[in-house]
Design goal:
alpha/beta; 6-stranded mixed β-sheet; Rossmann fold; 2 domains; 319 residues; Dihydrodipicolinate Reductase, domain 2
Amino acid sequence: MTSEFEFPRMGEAPDLDLSVAVVGCGSIGRRHIQTLLKQGPRIVGVDPLDVPLPDSVQHYRTLREAGKVDAVLVCTPASDRIRIIREALAMGAHLFIEKPLAMTYAEAEEIAALVAEYPHRKVMLGYNLRFDPDLQTFAAQLPDLGRLMYAQVRCSSYLPRWRPGRDYSQTPSARAALGGGILREASHELDLINWLFSPKSVAIGASMRKVSDLDIDCEDLVAATLETETGLVIELHLDFITPGYSRGIRVVGTKGEAEWRLGPESPMYEREIAHFLDCVVNNKKPAVGIGDGLRAMELDQLIRAASAAFDEARGRLAA
């Protein structure tokens, strides 16, 4: 995935004739603002709260107040996505939507239908892991492994350390009503399962639990086993209760095995935003589109249903 705007050095950003609004200036929104500052477009930040922004970034309370822009980065909590997406499309903007696409699969379908009404708009999902160079190398190796038999997909971290200086219990990640919980927060892994293994159908066993003493009202652990139509067995582990941070995939095939781990200095965010700008400026198709967000939400729904079935069966056994 290359782009003429990729990896500009500080002070050497191209002078793009492009205006971008970042809606939702929390941690991920501010990260994207810092990346955009290196890549040349005019930037405004939109957030109803007083948030710290660079001096060169004008702050507005609403997207309507910010006025017409070429592109909008939707970085609000998942609970507020549909409203912002509808407003941005009506204004004529291209869209970059942070993951997950929505709170539920039904909402994701509603968003996909809305986007379909604007076929000439560029709409990209924020699955930044796909832009990690080491992961792209790993993905290219998979055909050499023969028939894939087994895969481990894992993301472990510790929620209280995600956003230094903020009370983790007051962040969207900790509140189910705002789209919190590790399954939605780590939906990158659901996207990677779809992207790397392209399962047409899956059988799933899953358990979603709050097992820690963290001050949250949503799940902090997901353990799932998926079996695809080809016989590939995938073990999925997600949590934000583990000290430290670990993210990776291990795959075993009939002709060998391969492993990927996310490194600490990945340029994935820079590559991701550069790709989006490239698509907008040069009329290219985004590598990660609305269909990818919809498929991730479909897998989210299947895991939730499998966990509910597990809970029901456990209840019958305990009775």
